[in-house]
Amino acid sequence: VGHSFGGRVGLRLAVRHPEMLKGLVVVAGAGIPRQRVFFDRMRNDIRRRQFRFLRALAGANEARRDALEKRFGSPDYVHPKQIGMRDIFLKTIAEDQSPDLPKIGVRTELLYGEKDGETPVEIGARIAALIPNARLTVLPAYDHFSILYRGHHVIALRAKTLLGEAS
What distances in angstroms separate CA 3 from CA 20, 119, 154, one per listed residue? Predict the structure, then answer.
């Protein structure tokens, strides 16, 4: 079972070491690039340019630069810097696993929240279309994190079912 970044890791594991898995449950998983409409691409471009401009103004003032990163970046972007792993994180999230997904042979359950803005349902649908033995379930009214606590029973049931099918 892997959530978000953990889903990306699970997909990679299923490709490289399928013998280690009886099944895979990906919850709000990443692994392929988002398809963004023109408006979203423009908004992101404006935010990125604004961030770069303000960061340049901050100069060598580390406190101001950190404050800007917290304002403009997600917690997933800010935390790796604090532990010295941002370069690895950025390289990993830029990776497109699409070419490898058809190689996954284990039963794969994909659970996505209908209200997830981080890893939207369109990502889950595209991943499901690429994995031969995958099933996508969209959970209404859940977002990227509420799926973990409000949807934990669904996640546990899917994992339990996969383990039962593999026995």
Answer: 18, 10, 13
Distance of CA 84 to the CA centre of its chain: 20
Q: What's the half-sphere exposure (Cβ side, CA atoms, 13 Å) at 133?
A: 12
Contact between residue 128 and residue 25 where contact means Cβ atoms under 8 Å apart: no
59: alpha, beta or left? (left if phi > 0; alpha if psi -120 to 50) = left
Prediction pTM value: 0.74
- C-alpha span between 33 and 60 (Å, rounded): 33
For residue 112, what are the β-bridge partners? 138
Place of tokens 């546990």: 156
Q: Decide if pLDDT at 94 tops 60.
A: yes
